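Inverse folding, one chain.
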C-alpha cells in the first residue's frame, strides 16, 4: 500500500516541478522537468500544455514594436492556445502569470490608433487584462473624444472602477447607458459590485421594458426615482444626444430640485413632460410622491 501511495505521488511531484519552473519562467528547467515527467507518465493530460508554455517562454520577449497584422496573429494565438494552456496548468495563478504578456503586447502596439472595427488591437484592453489600471486609463485618455465613443467609455468605466471605486464612475455609467445600453447592461455585472448588482437586478425586475433591446437606457432615470441622491452623480454626466431616456433622467433631476424649492407651477409642467416621455417611469415617480 505504501508503494502504491509513493507511485501515485511521483507524478504529482514531477508535475509540480514543471509548474514551478513555468511560474519562474525558467524554460530550460521546464523542459527538463517535462522530460522527467514524460519518462514514466507519457500520457499525462497536461503534457501538451506544459510543452506549449515552455515553447512560449523559449521564444523570448516580444519585439518592441509590432504591426497591426503581427499583433492580431499574436493575440489570436494567445487567446486560442496560450492563455487556455496557462489556465489549465496554473489555475488561479494563470492570470497574474499571463499579465506580463498582455503588458508586453500593449507596449508593442502603443502606437496603433484606436479603430472600433478592431477594438482588441489597442493597448487599453490589454492593460485591462493585465490589471494595470493606471496604464489602461492613460491609454484610453490618448483616444480622441474617448468619452463620446461606447468602446473606450466602456473601458474607462472598467479601469476607473477598479482604480477608484464605484462612486467615481456613476456619471460614466449613466452616459454609457444612454449611448450604448446593450453594452452597458453587459459591462455592469462584470464589475462585481454588490450594490450595483442589487440595483441592476431591481431595475430588471421593476421596469417592464428592461428586457427590450435598448431597455437599459432607462436605468439612470429609474435610478434617480429610486434614490434621489444620484442626482449629484447625474450632474457630472456629460450631455449626450438628448435621447428620450436621457431627457427623462434630466427631467427627474429637475423635478427633484424644483420640489425642494417648492416651485409648484414648474413641478406640474415638468411632471407633464415626464409623463409624455415615459408614462411607466412617470407612474413610478408619482408612487413615491
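Residues assigned per position:
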Amino acid at each position: 500500500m505504501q508503494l502504491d501511495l509513493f507511485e501515485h505521488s511521483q507524478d504529482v511531484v514531477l508535475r509540480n516541478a514543471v509548474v514551478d519552473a513555468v511560474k519562474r519562467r525558467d524554460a530550460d528547467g521546464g523542459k527538463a522537468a517535462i522530460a522527467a515527467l514524460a519518462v514514466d507518465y507519457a500520457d499525462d493530460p497536461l503534457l501538451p500544455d506544459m510543452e506549449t508554455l515552455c515553447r512560449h517562454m523559449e521564444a523570448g520577449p516580444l519585439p518592441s514594436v509590432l504591426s497591426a497584422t503581427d499583433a492580431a496573429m499574436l493575440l489570436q494565438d494567445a487567446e486560442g492556445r496560450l492563455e487556455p494552456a496557462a489556465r489549465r496548468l496554473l489555475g488561479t495563478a494563470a492570470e497574474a502569470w499571463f499579465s506580463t504578456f498582455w503588458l508586453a503586447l500593449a507596449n508593442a502596439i502603443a502606437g496603433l490608433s484606436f479603430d472600433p472595427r478592431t477594438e482588441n488591437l489597442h493597448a487599453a484592453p490589454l492593460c485591462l487584462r493585465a490589471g494595470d489600471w493606471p496604464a489602461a486609463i492613460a491609454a484610453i485618455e490618448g483616444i480622441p473624444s474617448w468619452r463620446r465613443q461606447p468602446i473606450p467609455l466602456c473601458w474607462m468605466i472598467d479601469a476607473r472602477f477598479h482604480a477608484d471605486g464605484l462612486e467615481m464612475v456613476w456619471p460614466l455609467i449613466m452616459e454609457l447607458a444612454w449611448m450604448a445600453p446593450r453594452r452597458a447592461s453587459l459591462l455592469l455585472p462584470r464589475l462585481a459590485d454588490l450594490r450595483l448588482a442589487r440595483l441592476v437586478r431591481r431595475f430588471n425586475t421593476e421596469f417592464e421594458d428592461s428586457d427590450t433591446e435598448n431597455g437599459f437606457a432607462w436605468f439612470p432615470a429609474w435610478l434617480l426615482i429610486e434614490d434621489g441622491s444620484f442626482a449629484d452623480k447625474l450632474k457630472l454626466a456629460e450631455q449626450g444626444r438628448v435621447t428620450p431616456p436621457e431627457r427623462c433622467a434630466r427631467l427627474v433631476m429637475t423635478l427633484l430640485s424644483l420640489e425642494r424649492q417648492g416651485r409648484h407651477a414648474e413641478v406640474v409642467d415638468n411632471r407633464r413632460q415626464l409623463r409624455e416621455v415615459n408614462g411607466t417611469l412617470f407612474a413610478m415617480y408619482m408612487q413615491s410622491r
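The CA atoms of residues 20 and 30 lie 8 Å apart. The two ends are 76 Å apart (CA to CA).
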